[in-house]
Amino acid sequence: MGRPTKENSLTPQDVIAAAIACLDREGESALGVNRVARELGIKPPAIYKHLDGNAALRRAVALSIWQQYAAWCRQRLNGVNSPCEMLKVGGHATREFARSYPPRYRVMMQFQLYSEDTVAAPLIRETLDFMRRVLQSYDLSEAKLIDAMRMVNAAINGFIAVEQAGLLTLERSTDASFEVMLDALIVAIQHIRDASVE
Fold first, then answer.
1. What are the pLDDT digits (tens) for 58-84?
2. What is the pLDDT of the chain when averaged over all its residues?
3. Over 60: is that where the pLDDT of 41 sits?
4. In whole angstroms, what separates CA 86 from the centre of its chain?
5. Most C-beta atoms within 10 A of its C-beta, which of 91, 139, 188, 192?
6. Which CATH number fits domain 1-51: 3.30.365.10, 1.10.10.60, 1.10.3720.10, 1.25.40.280?
């Protein structure tokens, strides 16, 4: 990545881009002020003018990755209107992002988004709006909607986490298993809709 000509020209975006470059090359252990400063060819105090330490750096990087992921999904979902197809395309988009950027995905999934955070709030709204669009045709109560959203999120991201950990070792295509899981989620959402217990 290009380096700023002097420390005074450094922006928060420069720091985040350098941190993501380090993350992609070296993994999560590279997400530190000292390592990113070396990447930029500057002294660590220059970064503190923009981000207050390792926790702030990690937060800024995670939020940036969430924004990248949202844009990635938006692009793949463009023109998809069927709720079932939206669920499948969204699931595949998430898995493709995780496969393309494994360290970014892990950092993103370890970061809790809070609605009080002005940067995170639009990402939370977009995620919730997408899930509501996927599930709207099932006419779910609010409690059942939450159950369905949690199930879909846990299934897709749980599958990806187990896959990234190298634990899917049986001789069957993981692609085939993922597709079966997405189909099963559609059936499970119908079960949640028809269940009498709230």
1. 999 999 999 999 999 999 999 999 999
2. 92
3. yes
4. 17
5. 91
6. 1.10.10.60
